[in-house]
Design brief:
With about 700 residues, this protein is α+β, with helices and mostly antiparallel strands. About 35% of the residues lie in helices and about 20% in strands. It has 25 helices and 24 strands. Strands 2-11-10-3-9 form a 5-stranded mixed beta sheet. The protein has a 5-stranded antiparallel beta sheet with strand order 14-13-12-15-16, with no helix packed on it. A hairpin with a 6-residue loop joins strand 19 and strand 20. Bound molecules: 2-(butylsulfanyl)adenosine (IVH).
Length: about 700
Amino acid sequence: MAPEEARQRIAELSEELERQNYNYYILANPTISDYEFDMKLEELSRLEKEFPQFLLSTSPTQRVGGGVTKEFKSVEHRYPMLSLANSYSKEDIEEFITRIKKTINEEVEFCCELKFDGLSISLQYEDGVLVRAVTRGDGTRGDDVTTNVKTIRTIPLKLQGDFPPFFEMRGEIVMPLDSFNRLNEERADEGSQLFANPRNAAAGTLKLQDSREVAHRRLDSYEYYMMMDDLETRFSTHYESLMASRKWGFNVSNFICLCKNVDEIFDFINYWDEKRHELPFAIDGIVLKVNSFAQQQLLGFTAKSPKWAIAYKFKAEEVETELLSVDFQVGRHGTITPVANLAPVQLAGTTVKRATLNNEDFIRQFDLHYGDTVSVVKGGEIIPKIIGVNLNRRKEGVEPVKFVTHCPICGAELVQNEGEVAWYCPNTLGCSPQIRGRIEHFIGRKAMNIESLGEGKVELLYEEGLIKDVADLYDLTYDKLFGLEKVITIQDEYSLLPVATRKVSFKEKTALNILDALEKSKNVPFERVLFALGIKFVGETVAKTLAFALHDIDHIINASVEEMTQIDEIGEKIALSVRNFFDDERNIEIVNRLKAAGLRFVVEEKQASDKEQVLAGKSFVVSGVFEHYSRDGIKETIEAYGGKNVSSISSKTDFVLAGDKMGPEKRKKAESLNIPIITEADFEKMIGLERQEEFTGLLF
Ligand code: IVH
């Protein structure tokens, strides 16, 4: 394609995709199919790679991430980011209205909005283009998080309509509850600490260095406030400005209500206090704003907040109860989590009997004693949480809660990793909750999917001595299974306390189903087998990345920390954990037994039967831009001829296939390891493809 044609097509696709993005995310009214959207996005991405000079800062391809922010630049806010005064009762709101009426001797209308529970963001637009996104920081200066914010699909990169040439939009970045739950599930799989609530998760996500991971976590944003010089000459009310901004492309909530008195305001507050749990994101109150800009100007500001607005905070759902005892739970990775057993109490519609105490620091921070009266909340958090101790009610002579020094299950002395607060049981292969946890993870739906071995059966097989590790599963036979029977105790997933009993028995059908599921699991692709091994910090996504980058288990087993950290998205923490896992001979033995059982330990190649496998056994690292192929295209060609692609150069790489603009670091690395660097033409010779010289003149 000629450069001018490419420039035009890139502009056209960018505009159309951004418009479709608006239709889909803001209007919830898509006008093309997901497939068409993806095809167009792919075309755009291909053209931008081929013609990087035409890549626009507003390109919809930025939304999938890729940019890395090594350090977030601190920048000054053009307009300070103030906060809001809080109120907690009808009296507080009545007082607020009375105060306002003292200055304004006319009718006042209030714009009532949801108070989003996330973190505030300032979005700066120049000529309709998002040029900068800054966090609140200390209100005067914040961090420039533009690259990460561009991945949020409800934030427009380019506006439409009659927007002002320069203005700022303020809003809230939130993590929707489904994104939050998915993220915590992934973190639980990886053995990473869970986020306590969506706000913390959103804050943690916005500060990630890798914007691809930010994109993956699916943040969302709602805008609620416009800022510019002479705003009141354009609009006379806040509501009007919000409605206009919605037309320009901003995600403005539908749940806004104009109210004239305290009763109308309280109808809105009470409605959302009850219905807030039905929203797909967390809110923690209602914000009231004087609607008229002229009246806002009369009212002005205090040093910290506008006098024309107030936040009404919903009551934290909090109760006091007694701390009865503390259990120490052992996780799949050996982490010891203290769990409080509480005198049962009603909270937000459920009976709460337990709460997490997180770790030793948490117990110390509250100086917890047995019998203490503790305050428990359940506000958007996944599990109830202790937020305070009522010292006035501490009984005399009570004992402080002490963290255990030895594993409550196997008795091993606990250890602590440098820089971590958590204590671990080091008896990885001999401590029953860790062993069972690993087996349960292995058979899980996202891992080997051996569903028929679900709840209770693993426990029975473990107690019968039939499975001590995941490899033992493949030694099970009909004779070993048939007839096994036991009444088992079902434990609470979280506290491991008994909650019910159930009879588990292996009749003919059960035994056959299990053997069948085990057989089928031998076809589970390598990336899922790797995930199933349960290596700390290796969740589903990381397992895929490692499998595709290093191709087979032997490369992974032998990869150094340095080799692994060269792979996109693999940091030192993950690499060290993988290395530790495979440095343990017992894990290698398990892998060898699983290999012998027939599980897949190599990434499945796309085979092209009609092509000669002339590159069989050869590994390639592809780098740079090519004349006749897209990057993906040349990789597919390598695979079609039996070769394999690896993403980072190691001593095991056979060739580096270099196009234009190959990175200097890669070149240095290849040269230092003496790995041949070949050109596109060399590659084509290898696969027996001779291109005709381009026709440049007359043939005689
Ligand atoms: S207006 C001048 N509207 O609540 C203040 N803030 O506690 C402009 N918030 O920092 C803020 N929802 O992060 C406004 N509908 C809403 C809001 C909202 C959430 C946050 C915002 C602010 C904090 C104050």
